[in-house]
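Dear colleague,

As promised, here are the two records you asked about, laid out in our usual form so they can be pasted straight into your sheet.

NAME FIELD: protein one
SEQUENCE, THEN STRUCTURE:
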Amino acid sequence: VFVVHTARAWLDGVFGVQYVQAESPVYINANNVPQPDVAVLAHDRRHYLTAGTPPASDVRLIVEVSESTLS
């Protein structure tokens, strides 16, 4: 959790808080709508209040943090 909050804070500073969303869906296709830990979007988050879930083409960066590794 700490790593996700740190990543989000850093991305907020670099890209602007209005372009960074956390733990919200990104539309890939009807069967694939992941919820990455953090995503940087092409448009202000307010744009998606009327446009709906951001499509993959509007995603500039996705951060998914794993707190454990597979053995």
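NAME FIELD: protein two
SEQUENCE, THEN STRUCTURE:
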Amino acid sequence: CVGCVWFFVFQIDGSGGHYKLFADGTLQIIGLYRYDSGVYICMASNGIGEPIRKEVYLTVKGTEFIVFVSI
């Protein structure tokens, strides 16, 4: 996904640690915790027209998971 940006209370840069971003726009959350519950927003833009915005609602009821989120 060219120009994909993820947000969850703050912009996710995927530079390591808890969140990882892949070239195709997939967001990986490593070491999932209850505080990760909430709305994740992906904004995608190729510079032509309006950006596309998608929301993903995540509810965490346990721990020790790895989650991949793709739009």
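A couple of things worth noting about protein two: The beta strands are 4-8, 10-12, 15-16, 19-21, 27-30, 38-44, 52-58, 66-69. The first strand starts at residue 4 and ends at 8.

Best,
R.
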